[in-house]
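Q: What would this chain look like folded?
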Amino acid sequence: MGVYAQSTSIESILKQIEQNNQELIALGQYVESKRLDLKSGNNLPDPQFGAYYLPFGEHNSGDYKEFQITQSFEFPTVYGSRSNLIDLQSRKLELEYEIKKQDVLALAKNYCLNLIYLDKRLNAETVRVEQAQKVFNQVQSLFEKEQVGILEMNKAKVSWMKEQFKIQQIESEKKNIRLLLSNLNGGTEISFLSNEYELSLDLQDRDSIWQEKQLLDPIILDLKQQESIAEQNLRLAKNKALPNLTAGYNRQGVSNSHYSGGVIGVSIPLWNNHNKVKAAKSTVNFKKAFSSSRLSNAYAAYEKQFNDYQIMLSKFREYQNTLSDLDTEELLFQAYELGELSFLEYYMELQFYREAYDAMLEIEYQLYISHTQLLKHQL
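A: My prediction, written as structure tokens:
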């Protein structure tokens, strides 16, 4: 059974999807499990217990007995260094979740924008169907009076049918988009009531948005995080060059004679850490170069997207200024009713202005899609 969530804004829908999206829920659980797994990598090794009982052999005293319990551990600074590394790795997991979350929410927002665009088209097509029906009724009346031929009446009927079919297509598209939106919401149906775009198309200046992206965009932050992880790995490798330690208790002896005391051991780091510091340094250099290259590419892509957006916005404003004060369809219909235009002339002129209006709606929709991508880091 579908549960209907009454939502009147894109923001409220995105909040629902963030909570209900099954992929995000699963990824959140995965991130938590990996975070705990990382923390377990900084635990002390298990203590060791050993015992000897040596009854055989030639001896006058009692049987020899010995037991020992020891705890091995790395040099104390290693644990602090590894703990810092785990924190950085956990943060990287969170950033990976943020990247996926923004992808899901950006897709959901695009679906909402698509519904608004389709509603705008539907409103326009509804008016056009009414006009096409009026024209057909008028032409049919003229045909019955034998003032026009069958060819003109068929053209008027086909025009009316085409407009009706467009409405059916739009309704079908809206249904499909709602299903996709419901799927993103974990199967819970969403009732999206808005039929107007909620945000202004105006943007901040280029540099301000880029500075904001560097602070908030998880893709960019992930690059910096990879650098930090590499640098912390280098610190850890250096700390691992210090000796491992062992401490414990030993008791040994025969019959009523025994000895007991502490056990201390130190490993000599001759081979285990060989070349690991050099490898960590190379990784740091690689991550810095990689991050710099990716950041440069990201800025180039952003700059192109920003420039394309401004060009499209300028074009949209021109369409708005040209079409906003015109009532072309009504004027054309009046001219047709008065007999100033034949049906073919009326239809050709009407198509020209309708195509211009549809192009304006399409540009407006694409602008909001581009707007979402430019400000995706805010989701």
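The first strand starts at residue 5 and ends at 7.
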